[in-house]
């Protein structure tokens, strides 16, 4: 069975440019998470979806970050405009319900110049 | 909110020796404590977990202990091997607000 798929794996952009990350969760997993992982730190939750509904987006900086999960499967996380401080790894995870094990994708490493 | 502290930040042990990583948490409502292993270029992978009604759990060379009173939990790896080299994260989960809070990680290096 395929794991969580993320693309791109790496992205380098100039500051003020927009960027988007894509995530395909494990088949059948209705809960999807986006995490931010700064260098040398643990992942921090940005947003959690139950099916297509964002049930926890309290940590998402809504002035520049947005996310969507159309049809309750794939998800896209967008940053517009990107800032230097956004350089980090963006991890997607999925689970069968929020009480079960979270499976992580390999992440997208973003570098903002 | 929950705060999880993890020590040490780096740990080097000789192959075959044991490694211990310790974490503390602040929210007494947290009741599930997973440990993740993250290898270079990969996402975190669950290696063992423990629930608040259990004091110790073991899976082959890996064991986790939990002291709810002191809000401490620890990961023990015995007979370490080179493939154990990675970054390890502890985490605390609160079933009430459904939030998983990670520690800051421990970079474990096994010296052959």
In short:
By secondary structure, chain A is mostly beta strands.
Q: Your description of this structure?
A:
The complex is a heterodimer of chains A (113) and B (112). Chain A is mainly beta. Chain A has no helices and 11 strands. In chain A, the strands form 2 sheets. In chain A, strands 2, 4, 5, 6, 9, 10 and 11 form a 7-stranded mixed beta sheet that branches. Chain A has a 4-stranded antiparallel beta sheet with strand order 1-3-8-7, with no helix packed on it. Chain A is globular. With 112 residues, chain B is mainly beta. Chain B is 0% helix and 58% strand. In chain B, the strands form 2 sheets. In chain B, strands 2, 4, 5, 9, 10 and 11 form a 6-stranded mixed beta sheet that branches. A 5-stranded antiparallel beta sheet of chain B has the order 1-3-8-7-6, with no helix packed on it. In chain B, strand 9 and strand 10 form a beta hairpin. The model of chain B has no long low-confidence stretch (mean pLDDT 95). Chains A and B meet through strand 5 and strand 10 of A and strand 5 and strand 10 of B.
* Largest sheet features of chain A: 7 strands, mixed
Uncertain segments of chain A are none
User: Based on helices, strands and strand pairing, what is the structural class of chain B?
Assistant: mainly beta
Q: How many E strands of chain A?
A: 11
Helix content of chain A: under 10%
How far apart are the termini of chain B?
Answer: 41 Å
Q: Helical stretch count of chain A?
A: 0
Largest interface: A-B, 20 and 22 residues
Structural shape of chain B? globular
SSE sequence of chain B, one letter per element: EEEEEEEEEEE
Main sheet specs of chain B: 6 strands, mixed
Q: What is the residue-mean pLDDT of chain A, rounded to a whole number?
A: 95
């Amino acid at each position: 069975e395929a794991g969580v798929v993320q693309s791109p794996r790496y992205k380098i952009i100039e500051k003020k440019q927009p960027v988007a990350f894509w995530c395909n969760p494990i088949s059948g997993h209705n809960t999807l998470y986006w995490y931010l992982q700064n260098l040398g730190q643990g992942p921090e939750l940005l947003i959690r979806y139950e099916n297509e509904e964002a049930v926890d987006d309290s940590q998402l900086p809504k002035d520049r970050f947005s996310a969507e999960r159309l049809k309750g499967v794939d998800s896209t996380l967008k940053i517009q405009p990107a800032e230097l401080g956004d350089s980090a790894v963006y991890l997607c995870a999925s689970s069968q319900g929020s009480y079960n094990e979270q499976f992580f994708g390999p992440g997208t490493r973003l570098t903002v110049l | 909110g929950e705060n999880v502290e993890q020590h040490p930040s780096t740990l080097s042990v000789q192959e075959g020796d044991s490694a211990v990583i310790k974490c503390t948490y602040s929210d007494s409502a947290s009741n599930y404590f997973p440990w993740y292993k993250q290898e270079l270029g990969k996402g975190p992978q669950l290696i063992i977990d423990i629930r608040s009604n259990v004091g110790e759990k073991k899976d082959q060379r890996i064991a986790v202990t939990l002291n709810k009173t002191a809000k401490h939990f620890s990961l023990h790896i015995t007979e370490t091997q080179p493939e154990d080299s990675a970054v390890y994260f502890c985490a605390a989960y609160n079933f009430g607000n459904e939030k998983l809070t990670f520690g800051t990680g421990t970079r474990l290096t096994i010296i052959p």
